[in-house]
Predict the 3D structure of the following.
Amino acid sequence: MKPPSFDYLAPGTVAEAVHALAVPGRRAEVLAGGQSLILDMRLRRTSPDVVVDINGIDELADVRVERGALLAGALARHRDFESPLVAPGPLGRLLSRAVVNVAHPPIRARGTMAGSLAWAHPASEWCAVALALDAGIELRGPAGTRVVAARDYFRGPHATARAPQELITSVRLPLLPGGTGVAFAEHRRTQFCFAQVAVAVALTVRDGVIAEARIALANCADRPLRAYAAERSLIGAEALPPGHGRAPPTRTEALPDLPPSTRTEAVPDLPPPAYGPFARAARIAAQDDADPVPEPYADVEYRRHAIAVLVARALYEATADGRAHAADDLPVGDPR
Amino acid sequence: MSFAYTRREDERLLTGQGRFVADIDVPGCLSAVFVRSPVAHGRLRSVDCSPAASVPGVVGAWSAVHLTGLPACAQTAADLPDLPPIPPVLLASLSTREAVAGREWPTLATDRVRYPGEAIAVVVAEDRYQAEDGAAAVGVVIDPLPAAVTTAAALDGTVTLFEGMSNVAFEFEAGHPIDEEVWRSAAVVVEARYRQQVLLPSPMECRAFLAVPRGDALTVWCSHQMPHRLRRELAEVLGWPPGRIRVIVPDSGGAFGSKSAIFPEYVVTATLAVALGRPVRWIEDRMESLLAATRGRGQDQRVRLAAGADGRLLAYELAIDADVGAYPHLGAALPTQTARMATGPYLTPRVHATVRSVLTNTMMTYPYRGAGRPEAASALERTMDELARRLGLDPAELRRRNFIPPERFPYDTPTGRRYDSGNYAAALDLALETLGYERWRRERDRRRADPAALPLGIGLACYVERSGGEPGGLHEFGGVEACPDGTVVARCGSAAGGQSHETTFSSLVADTLGLDPARVRLIEGDTGEVPEGVGSFASRSAQIAGAALQRAARTLIDQARQRAAALWELPVHKVSWSRGTLRAESDPPAAADLGELVKETGPLRVDDRFEGAMAFPFGTHAAVVEVDVDLGTVRVLRLVAVDDCGVAINPVAVHGQALGSAVQGIGQALYEGVPFDDAGVPVLPNGLLDYLLPTIAEVPPVDIAATTTPTPVTPLGAKGAGESGCIGTPPAIVNAVADALRLADPGLLQMPLTPDVVWRAARASENARRAAAAREPGRAENAQRSGHGAHGTSGGADRSRHGADRTGRGR
């Protein structure tokens, strides 16, 4: 597991980095956190002539709120999003709930959000979140800067709209309006493996009905997906209280004789009811929006089932989140 | 006994001071990298090594054509004392050599490749990077052939691994065939099929081999369980007298059975080091290990268990089709362990077990922690829980009614084992008490009455295993030497791969001599320092090597007294030994420290060999799980492991072994499996992100407890420890999931219990319950129970429908 030889460059500015990437006839890769690139190089899945290390470009480390959006520089590490205070209101909550599903702490300390978007693994949490938020991906290349909308960015497994000579300089994540509840639900086999299915949800409620719904799916196709059909089915629906259709499951803290380490753990939220707008949306997301690729231990039938379960759970969780934060979020309709 | 319970090894290992094969600094050492088959089965048309030769840093590249004369690997490994355990009566008619004949494992593939990862060529370069560059340049042309990666596929006759020869390399039976009348007349007969999936032992350190030639001698550093055996085999390979080879086992990152043999990579590396006259090192990386290292388990089992209405077991039948991989090597006869241990802890009067060792296009199965016993315990204990469900009996009570009682030992089982000692009910009772069995049963029943509650289940598994090894390998070397500085050197023929020998054996010798353990130093895993040895496997070291060391230490005391007596011109009985000092009640009184005695009388060294017998550790494991039936996720809430390994020489070391093996047992039950693509190649592109080992986040609260039933077969009373969790934990967890789901067909739950498997089982169980309720409203539970005959047969049909998922080999 050793890579073939390669050149290494460590530019100090974005302009130098772009220049280094754009030498004709030379295959270049960008090194940010290195959590995927180094593995791919060691496995000889990619063999660049030159590795352009951007870690010395200070301006790329910036994470700030500006003009109604969170701007995350290319060197923003996963762990920078672990606090919900990284962005005001529902956006910060969604990012912080998504990021704990990204690998494990050492990887989160090093890996970057932009790197996840560049790698574009179908199971990537950040790719689904970017889609859910209608993020903009800022690319700098020899011809200048362009911003690609997330919906136009993902082209397939590890395939994106980014040209090899372009550098992701930042990711623009628009703030979510007040009255929005968010959730991130993920299903995976162990704590530290790829998601079998993950779902990002943001539900904006006005006057008790759903005004806007964002549902993005990870590892439910060969690329991240928005569940547009499911979203449409929810517009105008009543925002259901948690527990609708089925009583809550017994919590583990009621168990006899359970050691303290497990007592406080969250229990999977409500199972999907058989009817109601959330159940309908979950079915639509699973059957119409998703296009699952079979994987070992998760064939298409199981995948679709799991998608429905997770979407329903995430919708309930988002509803509960919206209610819980109704008072402290910005007023409806005045997000920026 | 006074023992140091903190491990001596830990300071070194935990502060990065450990010295592993990859750490041995040898100037001018070359690095070897292997070119491997990317296909499961095919005709090898050509191997072009010439492009590699021009890669900078490459010293040479060789395929089988260039290395003719390399011996086949299987021949020398066929007579491992522990495995395969072929009884003497069968030696004349059915030996592993017969299984191997005509099916030798070539060191490098010649005209055919039979498993993905089979070594085809080797590239040696100044460093690892250059060697991998060279390996990437080697051109290999293979015409693929259809592959068989399941026993069923290999048995259907469409794929032949060796022309003109059967894919069944070995057959065996234990016990006598059971008359059909027994099954017909029994009150209850449970039938089931189980898959013991293929597992990858996955030590932290993969295989590692360093060969350093010097003059006409060769020094080998290898992470290995049996250094003396490796020396013997290398001597055969090289055609050298063993005395010219020294094998050293430095710190080891674990083995779990996977480092007990000689492998193609070792033969090639040693041969090239000698041929080139330069040190050559091969370090297996993780991706290579996932493809080409040994694997464990791999059995398709059919069982029948008959009982009377009172739950007394009448007969048990176990038929095994073992997936032994492409070449009949160490694992070919390993399933005989399963057959011999089929009886378990019960008084079942009739037990019959049969084995077919089936060749498949996969890397070979070898002993892996538990080695044949987990497969036996899993089949029997899964079936016992189903029997209890059908009889409406508490699973604990069913087991209690059938245990071999303590007064029946030694007990000769129908499958040919003589159990030394046991108190199975004591272990069960302690497990139930530790768990809080009754409270968990109440919680389970409460949840059953609450449709919104997550289902909870309790599973038990009672096991007996075998430790020490098999006849022919039940001896070990132990030596103790007194040094002039007052310290003592203990030498042992075993070789630790993480089993705390430095702590345990030093303490054992110190305790026997009455010395501070700091005065004792252990030397093992070095054929230059230890005259003979068998090794570390089959949970044998404490039981056999421990006894050898204890006896050698006692002999040393006797010899020291004799010497002192001669020195002081006194009868021996006048000389006493206390805490390393010899004293005589003479006039004037005489006294000498052991070191002084050596200074005065010359070297004092006892080399001893102890011959022991098999012992049979046992225990009960209990698991409580909660199942999210909508996703199929299993959460282990509690695991209790009660193991009886006789007298524990070092309880802390035993505790660590119990915990570690329980975690590996969790891995088998829930996470670990090797999926294959349609062409028979493992689908593990991201290594350990695809082959999921349990991490610390997957480890539930585990309670380890012990009962102590000494074995009469060794003076220490110690049986083997360290494999228990791999044996008892998997069936306990699977039984708990079956209990949570109230599963009518045990065949629906095949390991690993991945979410899709559990979800499908839950759905099938729910459908069956609804159907039964519809047939007999108000008597759903009864209907389900009495209607089980139908489920039993439908299990077979279902198996073929979901066969791909259940065997873990579909995509």
Remarks:
- The interface with chain B takes residues 1-5, 39, 43-44, 187, 189-194, 196, 246-250, 252, 255-259, 261-262, 267-268, 271-272, 294-299, 302, 305-306, 309-310 of chain A (CB under 8 Å).
- The longest helix of chain A spans residues 300-324.
